[in-house]
Design goal:
Rossmann fold, eight-stranded mixed beta sheet, six-stranded mixed beta sheet, 12 helices, 16 strands
Length: about 375
């Protein structure tokens, strides 16, 4: 987490290999008051960070093997080539890449995702333009249009919603700008409107969360679902997988409550407070991301519950959720790895060189439970 930020502009530009040096004694003396002011600002800002941002502060402690790993492609998986897409070969090092982030960086997933993109751009020496939609879809559309106007040759988009992208897709197509989407899918045609979609298998995440819930509860009782935001494939597919697996393996485990927590800790806490009032006998809570799950933990603590009274299963793999497993408040966490930078840039590099790339690139995700959470805490973000 960056607790001290420069003045906010619509875009930021980074390029590797640019170094500034102070070469005179006088400049060092002048720098001292600035450093003191910066230190004071850091201390002041740190005390006012939101909980979720505080929780992400240790994100860079992750171990080296915590990067994304691609699952084996299914037989007959479709690919995309630059000739079919209608683009042109370019050298990635000389290109400008635009990155559109969907949500304000107030949770560990988005912080880690954006940082991964920036780190990989710097590593490769690629000029990067960034924009953040602050969870406003209309702003994200205008952000991407502005990235195109600023000269982006390639786009990486983390979509807020799955629908409504026609203005961007048309503008990108007119300029022959390839698009890679990450984390959430755009409802459009692969290798026509966009090149590749890189993400986890969200249905499988839901199934694996159900497996953990079945184990934690014994497969009987009443459970609740804290749904993610409406209007995107992540929420729909994580819900689908969870319900399918319960019906298949544990018909005695009934979903009796579903309400959106909008993928936020605050809303997750509010919804859970309502839940324990209306369903005091609830046995388990499936939170479709860690932030909502941590909000549920806060609500249970506030209600005087003890760790383990209500079984909680979440999806993401943030450091604080995994710590929650260690502490006994969370039964299991299904990983959803946000470190998209290396895969996104490798896909763009391969594509712009004329190589075939997969239209759907699925990531292998791990999981945390009481058997591995403590030893694998360093892999969390």
């Amino acid at each position: 987490m960056r607790v001290l930020r420069a003045p906010q502009f619509p875009f930021s530009v980074t390029r590797i290999g640019v170094t500034m040096q102070r070469t005179t004694h006088r400049s060092r003396l002048l720098a001292r008051p600035v450093l003191v002011a910066l230190a004071a600002a850091v201390a002041l800002t740190a005390t006012s960070c939101a909980k979720s941002e505080d929780d992400a502060a240790d994100g860079k402690k992750s171990t080296a093997d915590a990067g994304q790993k691609v699952a084996e492609p299914k037989p007959g998986s479709k690919t995309c080539a630059i000739d079919a897409y209608g683009g042109k070969k370019i050298d990635l090092k000389g290109a400008t890449v635009g990155f559109s982030q969907s949500e304000k960086e107030a949770n560990p997933f988005r912080i880690a995702e954006t940082q991964s993109i920036k780190d990989e751009a710097a590593k490769r020496g690629v000029k990067l333009l960034t924009a953040n939609a602050q969870s406003q879809f209309s702003k994200q559309i205008s952000d991407v249009q502005d990235l195109l106007a600023k000269g982006a040759d390639l786009l990486v988009i983390a979509p807020l919603n799955s629908d409504g992208w026609d203005p961007v897709l048309q503008a990108a197509a007119a300029k022959k700008v390839p698009i890679v989407t990450i984390d959430r899918k755009i409802n459009a045609t692969a290798c026509k409107d966009y090149v590749s979609f890189i993400a986890s298998d969200f249905v499988e995440q839901g199934r694996r969360a159900a497996d953990q819930m079945i184990e934690a509860t014994g497969g009987k009782g009443e459970v609740a679902i804290l749904l993610g935001s409406a209007g995107n494939n992540v929420t729909t597919e994580r819900t689908k997988g969870f319900k399918e697996r319960l019906a298949e393996k544990a018909p005695g485990l009934k979903v009796v409550f579903e309400q959106t927590g909008d993928f936020t800790r605050e809303k997750g806490q509010q919804v859970t407070e309502q839940l324990i009032q209306s369903k005091p006998g609830i046995k388990g809570i499936y939170a479709e991301n860690d932030e909502m799950g941590l909000g549920a933990v806060a609500a249970l603590k506030g209600a005087g519950k003890k760790a383990g009274d209500v079984k909680i299963v979440t999806v993401d793999g943030t450091r604080n959720a995994v710590q929650g497993v260690v502490d006994g408040w969370i039964s299991g966490v299904i990983e959803s790895n946000p470190r998209f930078g290396p895969l996104a840039f490798q896909t763009l590099d391969d594509f712009t060189q004329g190589k075939d790339v997969a239209q759907d690139i699925i990531i292998q995700d791990g999981a945390y439970d009481d058997g591995n959470a403590e030893q694998d805490l360093g892999k969390a973000y």
